[in-house]
Amino acid sequence: MPRILVKTADSKGNPLITHDEWLAYRRTGIGGSDAGTVCGLHPYTSKIELWADKTGRLPSKEDNENMRLGRYLEDYVAMRFCEETGKKVHRRNMIFQHDEHDFILANVDREVNGENAGLECKTTTSFNRSDFANGEIPLYFHCQCVHYMNVMKYDKMYIAILLKDIGQFYWREIFYDKDESEALIGLEIDFWNSHIIPDVRPEPDGSESAKDVLDRLFAEREANTVTLFEQEKTAAELVRVQAELKAMESEEKRLKQTLINALENNSRGLTEHYEIAYSARSSTRVDSKLLRQKYPEIYAAVCRESSANYFTIKERRS
């Protein structure tokens, strides 16, 4: 059975800890929302960001309206689940620990009355429509449910999803699977023991999350030169990839020009399987050079200084 790490609210739902304290407890282990990241399946969070968060290198994410809305709509999603299924649910108001691994945590939205099952309530949008096509469950949501079954020893999880932008609601069952369970626990143990305990930064994965974390971790750069001889192979690989991309861009332009040439004065063309269009599109933009020349005071008033990291690589000359 799971162990209780902390009680978050009393029987009437009154908070026993603050939101900041709740966040601090979450940092002491891997929670359900972290499971997809550990598996490399989360579309918005990388392993290096998770490591930076758990080791206290990043401030807690600032609460925003979408996060608040998700919390407020949790009751609505649970109510809709009960309406659709005829089931009843209740809160546990606790953060639980795995019975063997104290860093594997669970904070379940609801438990289902009369069943050894939990309910995960999700409020999101259909921005990435492929994630929710035909009522699908995104893999990182699935991982979260498997994580909760591992900690709470549930036979199954229900997940209820509200796509608030299009007013769509649906729910699904996810049953316990021993192979899935063991695979996820193995990945979570490996991540904790390989990166959190020894404080070893994971390799970046090419995601926007990883880029953002690296820029934040190393925001203050000194005018020093360091030797990176151990990265010779990586540097050579990057130069090769950049050359291939440049060649591909050139080939892309050639193919486009071939089709434009074939269109001649026409704006639209058809092949057996493709439709090609080439026509003018107008847009309105501020000419900053002209604005600076004609209205220097206005230009100065609206200008804002910004900075960004700019990466270059080139072959060294002896």
Could you describe the 3D structure shown?
With 318 residues, the protein is α+β, with helices and mostly antiparallel strands. Helix content is 42%, strand content 14%. It contains eleven helices and ten strands. It has helices spanning 19-26, 35-38, 47-54, 65-85, 129-132, 139-152, 178-196, 208-217, 232-263, 288-294, 296-302, and strands at residues 3-7, 89-90, 94-97, 105-106, 110-112, 117-124, 156-163, 168-175, 268-270, 275-277. It has a five-stranded mixed β-sheet. A three-stranded antiparallel β-sheet has the order 1-3-4, covered by helices on one side. Strand 7 (156-163) and strand 8 (168-175) form a beta hairpin.
Kindly list the characteristics that best describe this protein.
3-stranded antiparallel sheet; 10 strands; 5-stranded mixed sheet; single chain; alpha+beta; 318 residues; globular
Q: Cα distance, first to last residue?
A: 65 Å
Put simply, the count of helices is: 11
Q: Helical amount among residues, as a percent range?
A: 40-55%
Rg result: 26 Å
Low-confidence residue ranges = none
Which structural category fits the helices and strands? alpha+beta
Mean pLDDT: 92
Strand content: 5-15%
Which strand order spans the largest sheet, edge to edge or round the barrel?
A: 2-5-6-7-8
The number of distinct β-strands equals 10
Q: What overall geometry do the principal axes of the alpha carbons give?
A: globular
SSE sequence, one letter per element: EHHHHEEEEEHHEEHHHEEHH
Instruction: Report the biggest beta sheet as strand number plus sense, adding barrel if it closes.
Output: 5 strands, mixed
